[in-house]
Write a structure and sequence with these properties.
The structure is a single chain. The protein has three helices and seven strands, in the order αααβββββββ. The protein is α+β, with helices and mostly antiparallel strands. The chain has one domain. Strand 4 and strand 5 form a beta hairpin. It is globular, with a radius of gyration of 16 Å.
Length: 165
């Protein structure tokens, strides 16, 4: 099923800590999500990916291990392996979701998931950052979760603080 956001808005006054970085080619969705999560440019992420073994030219596939290496190298974030999606309620606070998944090709596209916990006068809510370069700008960030059918996700967390003496 193709994703068609109906674009519910974020709560008034909320500013996402993540600045959306759009993908630039048919295959750079996961790289753009890494850039979004780390606050880096897509060019910086692509440069690191090549240093870590992604081909500089021609076709490429970014697997979960490469995503984890890039997140750790760029910002100290820790990523899990892909996990099967069961429900939005079961997701962690930050993740990469694999949506529009095709079981035959085993391909999909990535989006950034963020769950904001209630604090002060703000109730908890969740939203998606869509890095796709073909969507309308009003749909770059959406709370219309039911418009997407995730198949898998990668949990993203801060690296635990080192234990001192």
């Amino acid at each position: 099923m193709a994703s068609k956001p109906n674009n519910p808005k974020l709560p008034e006054g909320f500013q996402s800590p993540f600045n959306r970085v759009p993908m630039e080619d048919r295959n750079s969705d996961s790289l753009a999500c890494v850039a979004t999560l780390t606050g880096r440019s897509l060019a910086d992420v692509q440069k690191l990916a090549v240093q870590l073994g992604l081909p500089a030219y021609g076709p490429y596939f970014v697997d979960g291990a490469m995503i984890a290496k890039m997140l750790m190298n760029l910002s100290g974030l820790v990523a899990t392996n892909y996990k099967e999606f069961t429900s939005y309620a079961a997701l962690p606070d930050v993740a990469l979701l694999l949506v529009d998944y095709d079981e035959n090709t085993e391909l999909g596209r990535h989006m950034v998931w963020h769950h904001v916990r209630a604090n002060g006068g703000l109730q908890s809510f969740s939203y998606l950052i869509d890095v796709a370069d073909w969507i309308d700008p009003k749909d770059h960030i959406t709370t219309a979760l039911t418009d997407f059918e995730p198949a898998y996700y990668i949990e993203v967390t801060q690296r635990p603080a080192a234990k001192g003496k």
